[in-house]
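ok trying this again, last paste got cut off
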Amino acid sequence: MTINQISKTYNTADKDHFNELKVIEKKDPNSGDTLKYHGFSLPDFLGKILPKNRKLKEVHSVDVIAKDGYLMNLPKGILLDSKNFVTLKVENAPPKGLYNKLLKNYFDWKPIYILLAPTTKHSLSSPYQVNKIIFNTTKVALDLRSSIPGLDQKSSALLQKSCLKCHSLHSQGGFKAPPLKAVLIRYKNNEKLKKLLKDPQGTAKRQIEMSPFKGSQKDLNDLIKALNIIREAP
């Protein structure tokens, strides 16, 4: 643990230390099923696991890490919003688990499933199977080359300018749109990916808050290469 990070690994056994769980009923953001969730608002939950000598308002952002290593960075505005909910128990869940429409399979959400409320303009991806939480008390530096082998300086700059103002990647970037990896899973074909970048609304066939790429053809090709590296990266 460093001075600017506080790490908390969450184990299933820790649930025994929580009582008086709140219950909410809503549509699951991944499956669309109406379910009952038992847990706490995100700020209440983080306040319970944060060391007693620290306050949530001192935290700049939180990294939530899933069992498979997937990482999502939650900025301060999300952390303090009580509409976001941390699930420790799900009622009425199908035997196979919860269904993910994007990935087209069932998943086990345990030990933690964080339901992120949509904002007025954006629908946010809700991370599941979270078992580790890192509190960042200083701003996370944006340095893609250190976390993704194969990216050069130009590719990193293109990604930051074109994608990471809204999308997140490895705890870096914005939070107005789904994580970049989730988009790349859906658009595996480079031609479709190019169409999405040049004509987001027409390609997605719905109104989305995404601006078309306005760089040169060479920059577009370089960006596609960079996105392919990210798609294949662990």
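PB: full thing came through this time. The chain has eight helices and twelve strands.
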